[in-house]
Amino acid sequence: MKAQKTILIVDDESKNRSYLKALLEAxxxxxxxxxxxxxxxxxxxxxxxxxxxxxxxxxxMDGFHVAFExxxxxxxxxxxxxxxxxxxxxxxxxxALQNGVEEFLTKPVERNELWVRxxxxxxxxxxxxxxxxxxxxxxxQVQERTQQLIESQFDTLFTILRAAEFRDEETGAHIRRxxxxxxxxxxxxxxxxxxxxxxxxASPLHDIGKIGIPDNILLKPGRHLPPEWxxxxxxxxxxxxxxxxxxxxxxxxxxxxxxxxSHHEKWSGGGYPNGLKGEEIPLSARIMSICDVxxxxxxxxxxxxxxxxxxxxxxxxxxxxxxxxxxFDPEVLSAFGxxxxxFNDIFHSHTD
Length: 352
Hints:
The chain is an alpha/beta fold and 352 residues long.
C-alpha cells in the first residue's frame, strides 16, 4: 500500500489554511500547517513533506523568500512548491519562477484545479525520487560495473520509461529504436565507443518530462491551442529538472538531462525552450533531434499516417512546410544520409 502523501500548507490566515486542509484531506492527503515563513522552513526541513502550498503575501518572510530558501537547501530543494496568490501580474510570476516555484494557484482557489495541480506535481516528485534511487544504485556499483550490469540497469530504467510512455501515443518500441538510432548516428560521426554507448543509454530519457504534463493536454488528439502548447513545451525543462535533480554524477543522467532540455532546439534557431542555435546546442541533443523526427514521421499518430522510409528521408533531407534541413546540424544531417538504411532496418527490427 502506498504511503499517504503529506502536504504542508503555509498561510498566515487560518481560514485559508482550514479551507485548503479540508479540500486536500477530502482527497486522502495528510496535511501540516505553518503560519509564518520561518515556521514553514523549519517544518519543511524536519518533516520533508511531499509538496508545499505556499502563500505569496505574508508578514515577515514572504512566500518568495521562503521559496528561495527552500530551493537552496539540499534537504528541501526537491519538494515541489505551488504558490497560492492573488497576484496575477507577470513580474510577480516571473519572480516566483526565479525563486524555484513550480506551479501557481490563483485565489480564490478552485477545488478541481487544486486537485489537478497537486496530483500532477506529486506524480512528478515520485518519478523524480524513483530516478534518484536508480542513480544512487548505479553509482554505488560503478567500480564493479560490467556490460551485463549496465544492461540489467537499463532494463530497469526501460520498465520505468514504459510506464511514462503509456501516457501518450509513444511506445516501448519507440524507446528501443531511439537508443539504436542515436548509437548508429554517433558511430557514423566517429564519436568513439564511449560516447556511442552513453547516448545509447541516455537517449531514451528525452521525453521523461511528459510525466508532468496534464493528461488533457498530453493526450489531446488534435492540435494544441497556444496556451496548451506552451504547457506541452515545458516537458523539456521538466525532464531536465528530473534528471539534474541532486546534481547527479551519473554520466548517463547528465547526458539525459542535456538531451531532454535541448532536443527540440534547431540548428538554425527558433526551437525551444531556450532558442539555442548552432553549436550552442549539445551534440547529444543535435543527434537526438534528427532521430526523434525520423521515428515520429515513421510512426502513425491520430493526426497523421505513418510515412515510408523513402518519404521520411525526403522530408528530412529536402524539407516541407514544417521540417527543414536547416533545422539540423549539417554534419549530423550528412551522417544521417549515409546511414539512413540502418535506420530503416532498426525501425523494422523493433516493433511492439
